[in-house]
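During the reporting period, our protein records have gained a structure token line. A sample record is set out beneath this paragraph:
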Amino acid sequence: MTPVAPSFKRWILLATVVVVAGCVPIDGAGVAMDQIFTEDESRSTQPGDAGEYYNRGAAKVELGQSEEAIAAFDRAIELRPDDADAYVNRGSANAGLGQYEEAMADYAEAIRLEPDHATAYKNRGIT
């Protein structure tokens, strides 16, 4: 079994609080979801960790911040260029902004990396 990165555990806890409570306070000071996932690496538990940027991108998508999500997925891909899921998610964020050529290129790269990636095929078909 692959160990779960601390950043992923933090994201899961955050997502659980948001869904269950229906609000965004996390700590006693009421830190909001968009403040936790900033682009500031000084808040990172593991600077340079592709998984943390991937999680940040996913959170930004949920917040409707597609441009910030793309920037986070860009960094995740820079750190781990063989991550097909990062390409798929960046493609979805691009498609959400109407950047269809970029989205299609991301889906194509995801399929090249992982030829059986069903979501990449699905997203490519609906874009």
